[in-house]
Amino acid sequence: MKYALLDRGDRLSRELADQFHEMADARGLIRDDKSPRIVLSIGGDGTLLQAFHRYRDQVGKISFVGVHTGHLGFYADWKKNELNELVELMSATTPTTVSYPLLKVEISTDGGTSSYLALNEFTLKSVEGTLVAQLNINDEPFEMFRGDGIVVSTPSGSTGYNKSVNGAILHPHLEAMQIAEIASINNRVYRTLGSSFILPKHHHCDIVTDPDEPLAVGIDHLVLQFREVRSIVCSVAEEKVHFARYRPFPFWNRVRDAFIGFDENDKGPAKKRPR
Fold this sequence. Notes:
- By secondary structure, this protein is an alpha+beta fold.
- It is about 20% helix and about 40% strand.
- It folds into two domains: about 1-95 and about 245-260, Rossmann fold, CATH 3.40.50; about 100-240, Probable inorganic polyphosphate/atp-NAD kinase, domain 2 (Tumour Suppressor Smad4, Sandwich), CATH 2.60.200.
- It has helices at about 10-25, 45-55, 85-90, 160-165, 250-260, and strands at about 1-5, 30, 40-45, 65-70, 80, 95-110, 110-120, 120-125, 130-135, 140-155, 175-185, 195-200, 205-210, 215-220, 220-225, 230-245.
- It is elongated, with a radius of gyration of 21 Å.
């Protein structure tokens, strides 16, 4: 088994990375940063996003495994004190592979078209203030937006920025993308839906802005600036991201643990009915 590893860079993550390399070597796992089969991240979800973009060109051939060193991560199945168990399973068992959809973003400028993949989301804002943009769905006009910005998220990224602007949480097996508003301004000139909406695979959303307006674009953790943008096309990508699961960790359990909390001693709502 060939693997690569990225850590967050803090002292704890570096120490855990050294421990993993030592245990992996003892069990016959091979470190290969160029052509790995498994890519591990040690840190948080941000570290896994960095790992995803580093190996974007190999995304169809590799699987990711996350180890979190702090709070529960949506992309991390393993805790910092479980490295030995993880290494043993990697060396002796074949994991279950789960695949989640990605977002494809094509940005066309006077200089050409650039294509990006996002694991979590694409965000669009104006560099100079309020964003004004026309949104078309499948080449038909849909709405005229004015506000702070737009978030287009994958299902697995729906628990991030999308949720903070009141978007819905989607199960990551759904092949879809979600478009949410950031502080929209609605009046007689600019009218929007006022809520997030979800498009299935094979649909696309075009975002058209004033070419003279400089734009701030976010692709996950990456921040880019563009000028002379003629169109932005968002769609569900043909490629998918793969995660290696060496034990079950249901998505809704992650959501519950992250946002609601869970007490193993809680026997359910029947025990907590108000009197």
